[in-house]
């Protein structure tokens, strides 16, 4: 069994995001490319954004601190501390309206097997 302090990691990564020129900091908390499930803590300074990208599988964003906006081509959702946002299955971006930390959880969807004949 392993235990992680999300509060300590949120504090650490927010400090890094505020001090760094990119305005963000992230690290995988659990899982990775070799696993189906991956959880990543992401800290964003106010005004920083993760630009448009595809969703590699089923995903959620748990807002640990601050206020963020999840935006796709037609809709946006605002999340505050304690909110869980379901990431759309299409291109989207994440914008920080305050200094923020989120926990991104992704369960990668395996591609459908090719039709072999």
Q: How would you characterize the overall build of this protein?
A:
There is one protein chain. Strands 1-2-9-4-7 form a five-stranded antiparallel beta sheet. It has a four-stranded antiparallel beta sheet with strand order 3-8-5-6, with no helix packed on it. The longest helix has 14 residues, at 6-19. The chain has one helix spanning 6-19; strands at residues 24-31, 37-44, 49-53, 57-65, 67-72, 76-80, 84-86, 92-96, 100-108. The protein is built from one helix and nine strands; from the N terminus they run αβββββββββ. It is globular. It is mostly beta strands.
Task: Tell me briefly what this model is.
This protein is mainly beta and 117 residues long. Helices cover 12% and strands 50% of the residues. The strands form two sheets. The protein has a five-stranded antiparallel sheet with strand order 1-2-9-4-7.
Key descriptive features of the protein:
117 residues, globular, 1 helix, 5-stranded antiparallel beta sheet, 4-stranded antiparallel beta sheet
């Amino acid at each position: 069994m392993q235990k992680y302090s999300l509060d300590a990691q949120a504090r650490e990564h927010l400090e890094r995001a505020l001090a760094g020129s990119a305005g963000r900091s992230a690290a995988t908390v659990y899982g990775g490319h070799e696993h189906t499930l991956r959880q990543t803590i992401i800290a964003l300074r106010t005004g920083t954004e993760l630009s448009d990208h595809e969703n590699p599988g089923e995903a959620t964003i748990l807002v640990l601190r601050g206020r963020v906006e999840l935006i796709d081509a037609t809709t946006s959702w605002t999340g505050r501390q304690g909110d869980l946002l379901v990431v759309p299955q299409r291109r989207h971006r994440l914008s920080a309206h305050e200094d923020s930390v989120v926990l991104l959880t992704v369960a990668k969807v395996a591609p459908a097997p090719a039709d072999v004949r």
